[in-house]
Automatic annotation (TrEMBL), chain A:
Membrane topology category: Multi-pass membrane protein
Taxonomic lineage: Eukaryota, Viridiplantae, Streptophyta, Embryophyta, Tracheophyta
Predominant location category: endoplasmic reticulum
Gene that produces this protein: LOC115992138
GO cellular component: endoplasmic reticulum membrane
Family named by the database record: Belongs to the ERD2 family.
Domain of life: Eukaryota
UniProtKB keywords: Endoplasmic reticulum, ER-Golgi transport, Membrane, Protein transport, Receptor, Transmembrane, Transmembrane helix, Transport
Name listed for the protein in its UniProt record: ER lumen protein-retaining receptor
Transmembrane feature ranges: 56-77, 98-115, 121-141, 153-173, 179-202
């Protein structure tokens, strides 16, 4: 464990807490893409299948449980909570995310570390996570001005993978046989997808203006 | 063989 990875995990946790706060405090999920939440639930379920077979550390196991439970709770809340689900932007959240799932699955079958069930699921989860934010970014562009908590949620979610890239660079230089180009390339693509969001987020912070993504 | 340490990440 290094400071970059720990900071990345904490940033990821903060993004989920901010989202939970937004939904709980405003009893609304307007501006939140349910499709991105469903993709993330799939990412965690596919990536953490080893939660019962591979014990790495208490921290690792607890974080996996927190990520799976919180994301499933958010999806349930956006689908089932009679108050929250009314504020879901159903007509704006129209990204065809099934294509993302299919593409990630095909790519995982072609490019993986080992042709085993678990490794292919892991590669699938890595590729899917890279594109999981797309429905959310499209929804932000369509829904005009973005409320603060939603903006912070997306910001922290994008920042966490950027910190992981620093973690991989650090491990590359400090661990002899460290090579994980699948996660690295995918992590770079994932972080790059946030580039324009980060730009407009920085502008809104600098000009102390409301965050607004151009349509 | 020890599992690749890589899967120790979230």
């Amino acid at each position: 464990m290094n400071i970059f990875r720990f900071a990345g995990d904490m940033t990821h946790l903060i993004s989920i807490l901010v989202l939970l706060l937004k939904i709980y405090a405003t009893k609304s999920c307007s501006g939140i893409s349910r499709k991105t939440q469903e993709l993330y639930a799939l990412v965690f379920l596919a990536r953490y299948v080893d939660i019962f077979t591979e014990f790495i550390s208490v921290y690792n196991t607890i974080m996996k449980i927190v990520f799976i439970a919180s994301t499933l709770a958010i999806v349930w809340c956006m689908r089932g909570h009679r108050v929250v689900r009314r504020s879901y932007d159903k007509e704006l959240d129209t990204f065809r995310h099934y294509f993302l799932i299919a593409a990630s699955l095909v790519l995982a079958l072609l490019v993986h570390e080992k042709f085993t069930f678990q490794e292919i699921l892991w590669a699938f989860s890595i590729y899917l996570e890279a594109v999981a934010i797309l429905p959310q970014l499209v929804l932000l562009q369509r829904s005009g001005n973005v409320d603060n908590l939603t903006g912070q949620y997306v910001f922290f979610l994008g920042a966490y993978r950027g910190l992981y890239i620093l973690n991989w660079i650090y491990r590359y230089f400090t661990e002899p046989h460290f090579s994980r180009w699948i996660a690295c390339v995918s992590g770079l693509v994932q972080t790059a997808l946030y580039a324009d969001f980060f730009y407009y987020y920085f502008l809104s912070w600098k000009n102390n203006a409301k965050l607004k993504l151009p349509a | 063989k020890k599992k690749t340490s890589f899967k120790d990440e979230l």
